[in-house]
Amino acid sequence: MNAQPTPARAAPWRAWVVTLFPDAFPGPLGLSLAGRALAQGLWALETVELRAHGEGRHRAVDDKAFGGGPGMVMRADVVAAAIDFAAAEAARLAGGAPVPLIYLSPRGAPFEQSRARALAAGPGAILVCGRYEGIDERVIEARGFEEVSLGDFVLSGGEPAALALIDSVVRLLPGVLGAAESLAEESFGSALLEYPHYTRPQTWEGRAVPEVLVSGDHRAIAAWRLAEAERITRERRPDLWSRYVESRAEAER
After folding, report:
1. Helices (H), the chain
2. Distance (Å, rounded) from C-alpha 193 to C-alpha 187?
């Protein structure tokens, strides 16, 4: 028997995914912690198949680009019909609360942990997975899409990005992770990348675990972990390091 949603939420957080490939979901989201939480009703997943809203006998969803050029463009009318269907259902289930409409796009704003936390605090999200050369700009403007990018690279479609975004949100929901404190210590929790982790065996291929971690001195361990997180962030992500330094300076003022 499925467990009831946690008392912290009146209804489960719900992701609506508008896609040409609904069979891609839940995919890895049906496994491990996210999959267990899905089965327990801590969150819910709905797919809206774009082809069902396509035009004509062949349910066309795309057409040639005005102005020429390679590739096809997803039609505004088809995408709008699918989105409007999802938005009506989402609004009903959310009790009228606004549900963000997100388009996974390489030209979007970078998706960050702070946005994942904000989405986790809301009723859910409608995610639109593009294909081909993208979506007709008119529907993006008319429906007020929030364009989001997972990084400076291009995928064949938005489905892998949607899976990643949903996973980043679901793990923040109450009751999904066993230890709430682990959320605070992971990468981006405090604008720093995470410190290194070690486990048994204590010595492996001549490499020993840092002595401080087996010292039992919790204050020294905490200091070491902070120093390592700062070092790794400074070396690998100067953009995050600058932000971290600025936030510390602001806090000290």
Report:
1. 32-40, 76-93, 113-120, 137-142, 159-170, 180-185, 218-236, 238-252
2. 4
> What is the CB neighbour count within 10 angstroms for residue 227?
12
CA distances from 80 to 73, 135, 185, 203, 234 (A): 14, 10, 41, 58, 44
For 86-120, the pLDDT digits (tens) are 999 999 999 888 999 999 999 999 999 999 999 99
Q: Which residue has the tokens 């410190």?
A: 195
Total domains present in the chain: 2
What's the predicted TM-score (pTM) here?
A: 0.89
Same domain assignment for residues 28 and 152: yes
Alpha carbon distance 23, 46 (integer Å): 11
Is there a single domain that holds both residue 225 and residue 246? yes
Domain that holds residue 125: 13-170
